[in-house]
């Protein structure tokens, strides 16, 4: 009998404990899909794109935008919370967009604030936009889902870095203190497109075109498969190129870096007619692919050196890729007067219809 | 003060079971005295039949309860034999019972009796008792002819393949079904009587070559120590056979199938049949056996493994899904994929009740309907299922009482609970427990609840055998028939003996919960 | 002598779970502490604790005792009471630090709006139930909890594999020796499992250093793997997080599951339960030996409610909790445990010599 009384008391107590752990009903949460942060004249402006459920039958769900300004991010979020009367929920945030001024001056603070929210995934994409983040998010043609998918595809194609809160904070905390953010810019036919990267260093920023960024990716040891469209004999050769092996060593002369890169090339299609796939043709294609990769590599390396950022900008890249080479050497010694001598080897593994040829 | 009041009420309303008085008296040599005493003991009950007759100068009386005896066998067989046996040289009345026991052929079972307790026991069991004037002994003749339900398909343990026979109510029928399946001389059946008033027949079944003798002794001792007035079903005995602190899970199993019982007895377990109940008790019972069925052993191993894994998944689904759903939506929406979360948010925005209340409400409605469907007559029971579908599936959602995702959660939960019917009782309560914990403490509460349930399950030990064996304490070799099922070529080579499983106390003594004596 | 109820494998799993507890709040606290420095320190601390257990167990066997309680009670009631109270103090601190550590993590990282007192009290009550169920049930529970931990780590590794950067792992050079030593002593002082094990040896079948060593080596192996995984995935980001393993799991992704931090929650609460229940069980044993007439259920209820009240009080203010944590992070519990064991062994040996000299003389 005593046992049952204790059990009943425990059951009653558990009901009374409702709310003691900070439960928030789902209909009182604001489901944030995208966060845009602008920085102007010493003030933040935070714009949130939130999920708006269908209120009536026949209506479809959409998104709403709300924003607030303040001296720091916490004040902005508090303002939005007071305005809407709902708790912000960042757990399903698809992307965070910074304007250029916010990125160049406030990235570390923004990332610290966002990562302090335990609901926000560290893998949330973080991008930079050339205009205002608020303008981008307020556009009804660009829901957060579409925007994030577009940037993800661009990152997979190697046109911009796959920058997330985690990768950015890791880079900022490392010795080089340099992070690369994907860039969004206005497209030719309206809309937006991914457009290379922006390097954020301790003393400045550097903009990289998509080709320069791909070169930097090779240099930093990224092993993603990238799509290439090569001009060949009046037509277009559509290929996939993936790095297989790379090696960086000191060159024969002081100040020289010898960089060896081996890639695999898969040919998808050729739009200029029919090719006779003999060994001469394969060698010719290989030469074209090698030239394209080498050009991007050199452009990327040059951008690292000359785009206005300090030599330390590139140290993070070097550290990840060749830590043994970098250990014990100062950044100046690594990059001071380096000349890159890339050696690229292309291995063609497939020819569209499945025929195999190896060089 | 409350407890004193409860004690007073208990003393006033309840009585401790006691033996019937006057039963130990021996039969009187005088027939009339015996009959008079019998009438007094039974209170002149209307169904007691006494047929007096005189055969070859001997005054006899047949005593029986109406409707329990096969009159044809009694009259045509036994009665006619009496003339043959009692004719000729007169023997003293006191020797007549011996003669009848030795030479009477028509009755299958003949026993001598001396006391009123035995007399009432036999006639209540369908025997006809012959009393002889001048002898203090009677002869009980096995001419039972009472009606009983014929052997049919087991109601609660359906199989696709395998036997369609299930136990019936009479214990003798059930004993014969087992004996017919196990033609080994090591099969033992020991009859006991349990219940101060009901004196119900209880049969202990085991194999002497596999069962641990100490286990058998302890079970028999526990049965003898049972203090019940009436034993109407095997379920009454289960609490007496288990030991240790309260647990949601039982260390004893039940079965309605003779093939299952034989298989379990062959693993060294002890089975208990109760007269009047088609459910036999098996002990000790491991937790993993709730996920086994006879079909597993008739199917190919790969399919059996798949089905077992489905059952384990179903178990966790049925107890955890509603609680985890409530916890995730209220406390951890970041764990839910985006698109699903948006759907849930849309569905929940106009609901009248919070999520935890919705979960409790719908489960309560479901249990109501389930109970109603069980108790109602069959023709009306179909209507209940239609009403249930309409009430829950449509009207409640339209009225804004519960949301569509919650309906899906409950549907999946209840279907999962049907996959393991033997665990229906604990999972029903656990489900509610986890809903409460998930709604109040989030996933933290759910995991604390899991810890509580886990240790509760791990504390179950019956006859020295841990219920969680062979998973923990781990016995890798024995896992071949728990999580997976190896083929019969391997399984058939060796026989699993329950008393030797991992963690079982080799001495057969109970492994005490804390090793420091009884509380 | 009581009956042996716990198999060797469940006992090892129990030690494993007790020791793995502090891994889940591992924090490198700076680049020079991360990577190989931590791994070296924890491995060394584990090996030293195995050595200590071997020494203490050898001494116990030399005195002819099967467990520590037996040794306490050989020297009379006063000595036994003193030792039991000292042991009770150590166990109280360890159980409290377990529950409060768990509560601190939950209210910091997972439930920012939650009350620390509620979380601590709920955990303590469930641990008390575990203690009431008996060490046999708790040790049986430890085995699947250990399996869940291993499986969770494997899933986490699969989910975070894409973030692995081997360059983040560096071998500590000679300059890291002071940090390694500091970590080594901290890891050693966290270890009151030697005392726990010696209190339970009379209930473990085949008890000996091998049982303890298996648990410690198992936990050390997964310590190394976990620290390595955190280091190579989070890199310098790990140094600025209070709970880097939790952050790592939040960044992990597997198919439709976009974060795996629930693994941390699941594993850690189960591990905390096993550890807390084991310590509370030993406390119940101490209390019953101090008051032999006390029923087991009453002792368990008293210990459970008392510890719940204490946890409630200490979690009411961050200062009180921090005071306990700072005290228990130091050498106090470890040294006290060692002192109790050595004192009782020495007393038993001395008593043994006295008996022999009386017999000879």
Automatic annotation (TrEMBL), chain A:
PROSITE patterns: PROKAR_LIPOPROTEIN. Residues 24-185 form the Spore germination protein N-terminal domain. InterPro entries: GerAC_N, Spore_GerAC-like. It holds the Pfam family Spore_GerAC_N. It comes from the Bacteria. This is Spore germination protein N-terminal domain-containing protein. The lineage of its organism: Bacteria, Bacillati, Bacillota, Clostridia, Eubacteriales.
From TrEMBL, chain B:
It comes from the Bacteria. Keywords: Membrane, Transmembrane, Transmembrane helix. InterPro entries: Spore_Ger, UPF0353/GerABKA_families. The chain crosses the membrane at residues 309-331, 351-368, 380-400, 406-424, 431-453. Belongs to the GerABKA family. This is Spore germination protein. It comes from Hydrogenoanaerobacterium saccharovorans.
TrEMBL record, chain C:
Pfam families: Spore_permease. Keywords: Membrane, Transmembrane, Transmembrane helix. The keyword Cytoplasm does not apply. It comes from the Bacteria. The chain crosses the membrane at residues 7-25, 37-57, 78-97, 109-129, 141-161, 181-201, 222-242, 262-284, 296-314, 334-352. This is GerAB/ArcD/ProY family transporter.
């Amino acid at each position: 009998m005593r046992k049952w009384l204790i059990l009943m008391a425990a059951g009653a107590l558990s009901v009374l404990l409702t709310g003691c752990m900070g439960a928030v009903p789902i209909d009182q949460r604001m489901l944030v899909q995208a966060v845009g942060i602008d920085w102007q004249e010493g003030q933040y402006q935070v714009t949130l794109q939130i999920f708006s459920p269908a209120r009536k039958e026949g209506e479809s769900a959409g998104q709403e935008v709300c924003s607030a300004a303040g001296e720091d991010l916490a004040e902005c979020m508090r303002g939005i919370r007071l305005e809407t009367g709902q708790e912000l929920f960042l757990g399903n945030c698809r992307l965070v967009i910074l304007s250029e001024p916010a990125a160049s001056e406030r990235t570390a603070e923004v990332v610290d604030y966002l990562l302090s929210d335990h609901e926000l995934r560290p893998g949330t994409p973080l991008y930079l936009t050339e205009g205002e983040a608020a303008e981008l998010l307020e556009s009804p043609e660009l829901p957060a889902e579409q925007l994030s998918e577009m940037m993800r595809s661009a990152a997979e194609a190697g046109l911009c870095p796959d920058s997330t809160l985690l990768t950015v904070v890791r880079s900022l905390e490392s010795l080089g203190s340099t992070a690369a953010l994907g860039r969004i810019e206005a497209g030719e036919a309206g809309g937006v497109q991914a457009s290379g990267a922006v390097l954020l260093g301790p003393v400045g920023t550097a903009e990289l075109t998509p080709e320069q960024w791909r070169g930097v990716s090779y240099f930093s040891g990224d092993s993603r498969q990238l799509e290439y469209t090569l001009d060949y004999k009046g037509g277009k050769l559509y290929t996939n190129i993936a790095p297989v092996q790379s090696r960086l060593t000191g060159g024969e002369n002081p100040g020289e870096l010898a960089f060896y890169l081996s890639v695999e090339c898969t040919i998808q299609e050729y739009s200029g007619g029919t090719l006779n796939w003999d060994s001469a043709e394969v060698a010719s294609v290989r030469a074209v692919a090698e030239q394209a990769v080498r050009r991007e590599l050199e452009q990327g390396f040059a951008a690292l050196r000359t785009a206005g950022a300090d030599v330390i900008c590139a140290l993070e890249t070097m550290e990840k890729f060749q830590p043994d080479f970098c250990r014990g050497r100062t950044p100046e010694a690594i990059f001071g007067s380096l000349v890159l001598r890339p050696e690229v080897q292309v291995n063609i593994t497939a020819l569209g219809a499945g025929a195999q040829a190896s060089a | 003060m409350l407890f004193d009041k409860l004690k007073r009420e208990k003393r006033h309303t309840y009585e401790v079971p006691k033996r019937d008085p006057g039963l130990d008296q021996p039969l009187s040599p005088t027939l009339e005295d015996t009959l008079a005493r019998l009438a007094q003991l039974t209170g002149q009950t209307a169904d007691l039949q006494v047929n007096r007759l005189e055969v070859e100068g001997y005054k006899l009386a047949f005593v029986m309860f109406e409707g329990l005896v096969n009159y044809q066998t009694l009259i045509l067989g036994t009665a006619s034999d009496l003339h043959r046996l009692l004719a000729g040289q007169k023997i003293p009345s006191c020797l007549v019972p011996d003669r009848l026991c030795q030479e009477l052929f028509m009755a299958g079972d003949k026993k001598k009796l001396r006391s009123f307790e035995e007399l009432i026991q036999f006639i209540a069991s369908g025997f006809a008792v012959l009393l002889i004037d001048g002898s203090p002994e009677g002869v009980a003749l096995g001419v039972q002819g009472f009606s009983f339900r014929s052997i049919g398909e087991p109601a609660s343990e359906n199989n696709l393949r395998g036997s369609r026979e299930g136990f019936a109510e009479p214990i003798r029928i059930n004993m014969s079904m087992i004996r017919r399946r196990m033609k080994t001389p090591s099969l033992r059946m020991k009859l006991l009587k349990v219940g101060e008033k009901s004196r119900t027949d209880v049969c202990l079944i085991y194999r002497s070559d596999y069962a641990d003798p100490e286990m058998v002794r302890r079970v028999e001792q526990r049965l003898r120590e049972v203090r019940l007035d009436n034993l109407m079903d095997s379920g009454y005995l289960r609490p007496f056979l288990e030991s240790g602190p309260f647990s949601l899970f039982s260390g004893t199993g039940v079965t309605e199938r003779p093939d299952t019982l034989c298989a379990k007895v062959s693993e060294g377990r002890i089975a208990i049949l109760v007269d009047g109940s088609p459910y036999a008790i098996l002990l000790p019972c491991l937790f993993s056996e709730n996920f086994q069925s006879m079909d597993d052993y008739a199917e190919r191993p790969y399919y059996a493994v798949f089905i077992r894994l489905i059952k384990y998944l179903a178990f966790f689904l049925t107890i955890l899904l509603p609680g985890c759903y409530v916890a995730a939506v209220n406390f951890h929406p970041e764990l839910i994929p985006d698109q699903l979360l948006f759907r849930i948010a849309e569905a929940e925005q106009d609901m009248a009740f919070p999520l935890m209340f919705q979960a409790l409400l719908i489960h309560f409605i479901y249990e109501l309907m389930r109970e109603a469907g069980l108790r109602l007559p069959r023709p009306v029971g179909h209507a209940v299922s239609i009403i249930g579908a309409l009430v829950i599936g449509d009207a409640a959602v339209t009225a804004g009482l519960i949301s569509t995702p919650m309906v899906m959660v409950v549907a999946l939960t209840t279907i999962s609970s049907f996959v393991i019917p033997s665990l229906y009782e604990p999972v029903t309560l656990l489900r509610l427990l986890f809903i409460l914990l998930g709604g109040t403490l989030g996933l933290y509460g759910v995991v604390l609840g899991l810890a509580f349930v886990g240790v509760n399950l791990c504390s179950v030990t019956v006859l020295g055998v841990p219920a969680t064996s062979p998973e923990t304490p781990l016995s890798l070799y024995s896992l071949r028939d728990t999580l997976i099922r190896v083929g019969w070529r391997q399984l058939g080579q060796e026989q699993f003996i329950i008393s030797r499983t991992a963690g079982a106390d080799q001495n057969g003594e109970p492994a005490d919960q804390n090793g420091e004596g009884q509380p | 002598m009581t009956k042996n109820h716990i198999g060797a494998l469940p006992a090892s799993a129990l030690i494993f779970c007790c020791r793995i507890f502090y891994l889940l709040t591992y924090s490198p606290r700076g680049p020079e502490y991360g990577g190989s420095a931590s791994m070296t320190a924890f491995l060394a601390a584990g090996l030293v604790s195995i050595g200590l257990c071997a020494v203490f167990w050898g001494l116990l066997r030399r005195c002819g005792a099967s467990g520590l309680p037996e040794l306490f009670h050989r020297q009379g009631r006063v000595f036994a009471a003193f030792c039991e109270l000292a042991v009770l103090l150590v166990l109280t601190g360890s159980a409290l630090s377990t529950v409060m550590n768990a509560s601190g993590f939950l209210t910091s990282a997972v439930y920012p709006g939650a009350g620390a007192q509620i979380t601590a009290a709920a955990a303590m009550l469930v641990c008390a139930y575990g203690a009431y169920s008996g060490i046999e049930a708790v040790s049986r529970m430890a085995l699947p909890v250990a399996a869940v931990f291993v499986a969770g780590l494997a899933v986490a590794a699969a989910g975070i594999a894409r973030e692995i950067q081997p360059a983040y792992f560096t071998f500590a050079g000679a300059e890291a020796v002071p940090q390694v030593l500091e970590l080594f002593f901290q890891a050693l002082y966290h270890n009151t499992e030697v005392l726990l094990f010696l209190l339970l040896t009379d209930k473990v079948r085949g008890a000996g250093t091998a049982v303890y060593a298996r648990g410690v080596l198992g936990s050390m192996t997964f310590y190394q793997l976990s620290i390595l995984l955190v280091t190579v995935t989070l890199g310098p980001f790990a140094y600025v997080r209070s709970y880097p393993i939790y952050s790592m799991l939040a960044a992990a992704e597997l198919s439709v599951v976009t974060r795996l931090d629930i693994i941390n929650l699941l594993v850690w609460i189960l591990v905390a339960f096993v550890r807390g229940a084991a310590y509370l069980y030993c406390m119940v044993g101490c209390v019953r030996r101090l008051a032999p007439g006390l029923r087991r259920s009453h002792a368990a209820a008293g210990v459970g409610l008392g510890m719940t009240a204490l946890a409630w009080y200490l979690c009411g203010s961050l200062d009180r909790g921090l005071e306990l944590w700072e005290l228990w992070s130091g050498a106090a519990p470890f040294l006290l445990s060692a002192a109790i064991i050595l004192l009782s062994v020495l007393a038993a040996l001395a008593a043994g010599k006295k008996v022999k000299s009386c017999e000879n003389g």
